[in-house]
Specification:
Strand 5 and strand 6 form a beta hairpin. The chain has an eight-stranded mixed sheet, with helices on both faces. A three-stranded antiparallel sheet has the order 9-13-14. 25% of the residues lie in helices and 31% in strands. By secondary structure, it is α+β, with helices and mostly antiparallel strands. It has seven helices and 14 strands.
């Protein structure tokens, strides 16, 4: 993580934000969702980016596209829009690694090899996702899209996007906490198979004050043994 206060970076971010508004506005495809009591609007340039990130949010309530949004996320890719991928003054990072920079009220994460960048501008509650090519994005971006952006923004709302699983009954929810590979997904799927509510196997939003928990993604991490252990969960629509 690097903090850069350079005027050149401030100007580059502003130019990218202005260009993103222009590119997305030329062919907007909109999806407005309710997430953890907040209204999140995704506006993509054409259908490709929205088709990439949308399925992970398919279980969330869909809202009318004219309701006021608490957070607006603009998405576009170079390949299908013709807009050139931004040349920003950022230090390169290795494949599958993320660089993080802050500049004024902007925080951004970026991938040099996959050529993608995510920007949150806190003062306007706007976020921007730009990719060179959608098919070059890593697989986990499809399963848990916008994770960094949502984590940063919800922190300002007093909520945490936590690395934990969660299951529920009518009486409440339970968090399943553990390191990667400790069995959170297997346990959450076992609870789902037993009839409990499934909120997530890897990421959920929690409110530490109210002790509420919300589902973020409809996806789950699966391994081969899950098919044998829970065959009735593995339908053709899963």
């Amino acid at each position: 993580s690097t903090r850069l206060g350079m005027t050149a970076l401030d100007d580059a971010f502003q130019q990218l934000i202005d260009r993103s508004h222009e590119i997305v506005g030329a062919n907007p495809n909109t999806l407005t969702l309710s997430l953890a009591g907040r209204r999140i609007r995704l506006i993509a340039a054409g259908p490709v980016m929205l088709s990439f990130v949308g399925p992970a949010f398919a279980h969330l309530p869909r809202l009318a596209d004219d309701v006021p949004a608490d957070l607006t996320v603009y998405l576009w890719d170079s390949e299908t829009t013709g807009g050139s991928y931004p040349d920003l003054p950022l230090p390169p990072v290795e494949k599958a690694a993320l660089g993080v920079v802050t500049s004024g009220d902007v925080v951004a994460s970026y991938s040099s090899v996959e050529r993608s960048i995510k920007i949150l501008r806190r003062s306007t509650n706007e976020a921007f996702v730009v990719a060179d090519r959608v098919d070059a994005l890593p697989w986990w971006e499809r399963l848990a899209p916008l994770r960094n952006l949502l984590s940063w923004w919800f922190m300002g709302q007093g909520k945490l996007l936590a690395h934990t699983a969660a299951v529920s009954t009518a009486d409440g929810a339970a968090l399943l906490i553990g390191a990667a590979g400790s069995g959170k997904s297997s346990t959450a799927l076992a609870c789902l198979a037993a009839g409990l509510g499934y909120l997530g196997d890897d990421n959920v939003i929690i409110d530490p004050e109210s002790r509420e928990v919300w589902s973020v993604y409809t996806s789950a991490k699966l391994v081969a043994e899950h098919h044998d252990r829970y065959p009735h969960l593995m339908t053709s629509d899963s």
